[in-house]
Amino acid sequence: MIDHYKILTLTFSDARLEELSDYLIADSPETGEVTALQSLKMELGVEELYYLHTCNRVLYLFYSPKSLSDIHHGLIGYLRRQAPDSKVNFGLKKYAGDDAVQHFFEVASSLQSMVVGEHEILRQVREAYEKCWQNGLAGDQIRILFQSALQTAKAVHNKTRISEKAVSVVSLAMKKLRRLGIHPQDEVILIGAGDTMQKVGRFLQEWKMEKVKIFNRSWENLHLMHQILPDAEIHLLEELPDHDLNVPFIITCTSHPDFILTSEIIDSSTGGKGMAGCRGILDLAVPRDVHPEVITDYGLKVIEVESLRTVAEKNKDFRKKEMLLAGKIISAELESFREKVHRRFIERAFRDVPSRVYATRDKALNEVYKDQIENLDPQSQDLIREIVNYMADKCISIPMQTARKQYIAIRKAQSMSTKQSDQYKKD
Predict the structure, then answer these.
(1) How deeply is 127 buried, as exposed, middle or buried, from its count of CB atoms within 10 A (0-12, 13-18, 19+)?
(2) 3-class SS shares of the chain: helix, strand, coil, % to 5
């Protein structure tokens, strides 16, 4: 039943990064993630479980007749025992039935991603499913949901241009960085550690950047950035002139009223050797962090926030249309999934009917009426068997056909009612 699908989830937009980690299943050397998930499944008493976690989200998908509130209560209790010292006020977003299926489709189609339209999430969704399936956590019900989600994601990516034009300044900035040819082994210096730079950090983490240095005025946000980029070096901003700034890329975004990058600071850090190794600077600060003389003195390519905002505004109308189109595709796939689930429900409900009908037929022919049939001539015996076989087949097909017709009639009535309700709201 579609009502048995439930989701509990949290993303980067719902919680701070350090809080998000408390919602993950502990992957300890003693037990391991799979063992912990199997324990969770047994403790909650759910039929099937799917678990997805990325640097930006954690998602628990359940198939169970149990109430969503009971599952939520059980999961929170489990997570609290995992992190007894956590100060997080545990709570997750809840989805059930149609809403759960739609949310899962949107996640797989990257409509819920930090970068709408990116393809990486589909790989993550697939790998999480394969892990849960191979270890007996997910079963047939989650299998058909995953297959439908995969089909939906492909339809969204193939039939829309949702991934073409970014609308956030950070997304546009990072796309420009891609075009400048950034490579995982390029050194990157980040100046600032606020919300914008934390978003930048998540991009760099997904790109698996190996050499990152982060500078900031306070240690608090530096530690938050270090959770996103655990292999990065972290330094106070006052140490910036002591480090060589002649690196392939610099990204800066601070709230400082004065310029952070000046020719004087660069000369001090590079020993007057210049910035020949720098391929680009992203200045996402308002007001600007990079002094104009840096561009003229060193001939550097500096991408500033105002130019990005102009592009973002132009892209908004385009993205809005593509989002609406993606929403229609997901709605159609959700309706198709409903039909699939209900057909399977009917088939499962009648799956014992054929064997029971044929068992009754065999008993009638071989036991109940055996003597009477044997007293008949061979031609009459063949006719009796032919009639009984025909009736047996009809006893199987007629109830299933009737159930399907009744279901179609109910669905049409529900669809008409929904359309009338929508029309009434418009009027």
Answers:
(1) exposed
(2) 60, 10, 30
Phi, then psi, of 391 in degrees rounded to 5: -65, -40
As a whole number, mean pLDDT of residues 103-131 equals 85
Q: Cα separations (Å) of 91 from 51, 58, 262, 314, 383?
A: 17, 12, 46, 37, 69
DSSP symbol at 261: B
pLDDT tens for 32-80 read: 889 999 999 999 999 999 999 876 789 999 999 999 999 999 999 998 8
310 Cβ partners below 8 Å, 6+ apart?
Answer: none
CA 420 – CA 426 distance, rounded (Å): 10
Q: Cα–Cα distance between 384 and 387 in angstroms, integer? A: 5
pLDDT given at position 310: 65
Angle among Cα 286, 288, 293 to the nearest 5 degrees reads 170
215, containing H or E segment: strand 211-216
CA 201-306-249 angle, to 5 degrees, is: 40
The reported pLDDT for the residue numbered 278 is 92
- For residues 63 and 141, is the Cβ–Cβ distance under 8 A? yes
